[in-house]
Structures are given as C-alpha cells and as structure tokens.
Amino acid sequence: MTLWVDRVSKTFPGSMKASICDVSFQVSEGEFVCVIGPSGSGKSTLINLIAGLETPSTGEITLDGKPVREPGADRVVMFQESALFPWLNVFDNVRFGLKNQKKTPEEQEKIATRFLKMVRLSEFAEYRVHQLSGGMKQRAALARALALDSKILLMDEPFASLDKQTINLLREELAVIWKETRKTIILVTHSVEEALFFADRIIMLSAEPATVREVMNIDLPRPRSIESEAFLSLRKDILKRLRVEVEEVAKGEHDAR
C-alpha cells in the first residue's frame, strides 16, 4: 500500500491565494504519520483532499496507483467530533458501515465485538450515544473506523476537544491498537507532544499557503514516555522550528491590518 501526494495545491473559490501549495510526500503501509503546522496552515484541508472530500486544484493524489477523486472505502476519516448516530446504540454504530460492505449478520457481530473489546467498550455496547462521555464517544468512533478495515485511517485532531487526562489515556490506547493492527494512519494534530508520541514521521507544514517545510523521522523507542529526556529534548527542538512558522502567520496578520 502506497499513498502519494504529488505536487498538490488547493485554492478555494473566491480566495486570492492557495490554502496549500505544491505539497508532496509519500506514506507506506503500516506507517504512522503525523501532520503539524500553525493554525490555519491547511492541515485539515490536506486530510480532506486525501479523503476525497475535496479535489486538488493542481497535482494528484494516488493510492496504490489509482487517483483519489472522491471518498472511498479504502480511506476512513475520524474527526474531532465523534459523528456517531444518536438513534443507534454503541454496538450498532460500530457495525453500521459493515452492512454496506455486505457482511453477513454473523460477520458484523464478530467484527463489531472484536473492536469494541479492543477499545474497551464491550460493557457499553447497548448504551446510547447520549449516555457516553466524550472519551467514550471517541473510542466508539475509533472502533467504527477500525471495523471498516480501510487501507488508511485519517484522523483530524480526534482528541482536541477532550480533557488532558482523557487525552493521555486515549493516546496510550491508540498506541497499543496501532501496534496490534499496524494500521496505516495519518493524524493531523496541533500538538507537538501528540505527534512525537505517535509518529514514525512528522510532516511539518509552513504558514499559509502551506508547503512541506520539513519531514522528520522520529526514532524514539516505543512505547514512548512524554517525560523522557530524549522526548522532551526533541519536543523543544520541534517547537522552536514551529515557532518560526507561527511568527510568520502573526506577522502576516499584522501586516494585513
């Protein structure tokens, strides 16, 4: 499995400048790649382009050599909000997409049960969405995404709206799940700490229009401790590099006044 983002640019109708410009990178099977950058640097736009929710103005995105021009079952997106169906219980939310894959009821039950167990929600299978905490909703959304067995899982700041304690717990659980499944994941995050916790590689985008400023290979041993000396040193270094882009955004906003 190979994803290619090849010289992709995106300019939205009515805009005078591109949101992202000439972005290129490759993602291989089993990689965990994180995308960071200043606020408004096009991180979510990039995820939407890979998902097929938007189309590039120029350039091309291919998955296994096939152009990405629309949403597909080979790419599943997990958003900041869980987007669960409130009229269904947790179990039915997880198996919902499996019906479209023409799985038998027996197969649906087996798959949904497996991933609910993986995210530690087995005891809450019959709960309605409104009965779940924010963290539990995101666990259910993760189980639903994993159950679809897509080639790539795209994650757009999935933990951003949660409290710090819940975030730390979900990060640890996702790290364990990734180790077990070796799912190819591209995660957009505003948190350098989060990117370092997960990533094989970090793609840093520049200020708008976003280009690939740098691609960093992360060689920290797993499981990773956010309190280790090596982790903290690398986090400090990346924050320093990112600060240059954040200051560029602030300067542009000031000059535009």
Describe the structure.
The protein is an alpha/beta fold and 257 residues long. Helices cover 39% and strands 22% of the residues. The protein contains 7 helices and 10 strands. A 6-stranded mixed beta sheet has the order 6-7-8-3-9-10, sandwiched between helices. Strands 2-1-4-5 form a 4-stranded antiparallel beta sheet, covered by helices on one side. Strand 9 (201-205) and strand 10 form a beta hairpin. Helix 6 packs across helix 7 (229-255). The chain is globular. The relative contact order is 0.18. The mean pLDDT is 91.
Mean pLDDT: 91
Number of strands: 10
The Cα radius of gyration reads 19 Å
Unreliable residue runs: none
Cα(first) to Cα(last) distance is: 46 Å
Shape: globular
Please state roughly what percent of the residues sit in beta strands, choosing from under 5%, 5-15%, 15-25%, 25-35%, 35-45% or over 45%. 15-25%
Category from helices, strands and their pairing? alpha/beta
Q: From the structure provided, what is the oligomeric state, counting identical versus distinct chains?
A: single chain
Topology as a string of helices (H) and strands (E): EEEHEEEHHHEHEHEEH
Count of DSSP helices?
7
Q: Major beta sheet, specifics?
A: 6 strands, mixed
Give the arrangement of secondary structure elements.
Elements: E1 2-10, E2 20-28, E3 32-36, H1 43-51, E4 58-63, E5 66-67, E6 75-78, H2 90-100, H3 105-118, H4 134-147, E7 152-156, H5 164-181, E8 184-188, H6 192-198, E9 201-205, E10 212-217, H7 229-255
Parallel strand pairs: 3-8, 3-9, 6-7, 7-8
Antiparallel strand pairs: 1-2, 1-4, 4-5, 9-10
